[in-house]
Amino acid sequence: MNNSNWLIRREFWENRAIWMIPAVFGGLLLLAALFTQVSIPRLTSPQESEQAAAFFWVVVGGMFYLVMGVYSTWYLLDCLYTDRKDRSILFWKSLPVSDVATVLCKLLVGMVIIPLVYFAAANVTALIAAFILSIRARASIGSSLWNGDVWGQVQVLWMYVIVTSVVWYLPIAGWLMLVSALAKRAVMLWAVLPPLLLYFLERVFFGTHTVGELISRRLAGLPLVSFKGLGSHYGWTHDGGVVDNAGSPAPSVWHLINPSGFFTSAETWIGVAIGIALIVAAIQLRMRRSEI
Amino acid sequence: MALLIEARDLTKKYGAHVALDRANLKVEAGRIVGLIGPNGAGKTSALRAILGLTHYEGHLTVLGREPFRQRTELMNECCFIADVAVLPSWLRVDQAIDFVAGVHPRFRRDRASAFLAKTQITGKRRMRELSKGMKTQVHLALTMAIDAKLLVLDEPTLGLDILARRAFYDALVNDYMDETRTILITTHQVEEVENLLTDIIFIDKGRIVLDSSLEDVATRFTAVAVMADRLDAARAEKPFYERHILGKVVLYFENADPGKLEGFGEIHTPSVSDLFVAKLSGGAA
Question: Is the pLDDT of residue B260 over 90?
Fold first, then answer.
């Protein structure tokens, strides 16, 4: 376990983008908060203030989440490939560190640590941006973007999203790592082409869309499984307006998340099983393949 | 003598291509062994198997372990330098030392630092900023600071200039080697290591052609620069190789009676490189 500490540190040395991208992205958002035009309608009721705060925190977090998804995908696809390409795998393998530990630590970084870094960056950015906006638009919104209760709920929300994402996207991560351990070149193509090929073959020969549906369900279906009643509550996300259903109280995060549904869904656990199988395969490949 | 490495019927196939074909070899403790063969002979496959980097067929133990299944444990007592270029370009010298110190129980940081202090290399430099020779020094510093029983070097000086090559081998012999250590070197540049070795293993087309200590080589092999009028008589003694050079004919004999050869011409023990060429040039002339 002492080794895993060093393995994780090594990932930060190698992939400085892990913290640089969220830092730069956060910086850009803060510049935008400082210099772009803000036209926020005057908030008149406590409900409106609360909804504005919720909207603000969720949107900032959501932007970081999207960037994080792209970066994590790239990281997982790259993590067992680069050191084979530059042959430095021969150096890492000359040390008493098992392939199991190496692969699991990279998985941990890609699926848990990177999201936590983005989570922290999103929080810091949103906090400073809220402060900036409160000053710039103090006439209309005052300090209402800072709402301790909303902030606490957003923390719960994103932690829940991170945990469910790890579980839900495990098969995707396993597939990316398998490709990363397998491909001799063009990891991106290897990641995308086989599923695409399956999709077309199925369409041509059987006229069905099962593969495509399974994949798109896995890619986009997480909110449907992990939340309940999204559409009815989140009126204010539809047109970007802050006070779409003014007057009604902002929904509590505890009413939206659906952990019991998520963790008892067969879909969740079938995905986990597939993910584990793919990761085991990636470890086996890592043990056997040392160079390209 | 304890056997550090023992391989019986070691076989490695890549599809239809047989890289190692039932190879047998033994390496004893305290030796400096050269695994020598032409490109594509199976040297690298043999090393990969010994280091647990690849799956293989047959029986193989290294330091009493099965390399493929027990690579992690093996690497506690064995280290290797694969090639000068394998330290990743983004790694800083101090990070490399920190990492190895963190994961290797037998790494002595003070030794690595002392070795690097003799060079121009500072801790904040990244590998991509260092010359090949400097990278080799870093790798050597890391490796020599590990108290290992077996050191494996795979073409360690590939791409280095003559100064860096000489410095590499000098450091190896002077600062590293002692009777508790064993070194296995592969190279296709025989001349460079022949003065260093105590044992040689020749490998060709996946098979071990010769596995011998240099003392045995001296008694086993004889080269004779044969005088022209004795050529037919000398050939009757069944040399395994014949070399024509500057108007002279040199015949190579294995396990021949020295008494019989004396009259044919000037007798000497073949150098490792001559023996390598003789052995691998394909049987008798």
Answer: no
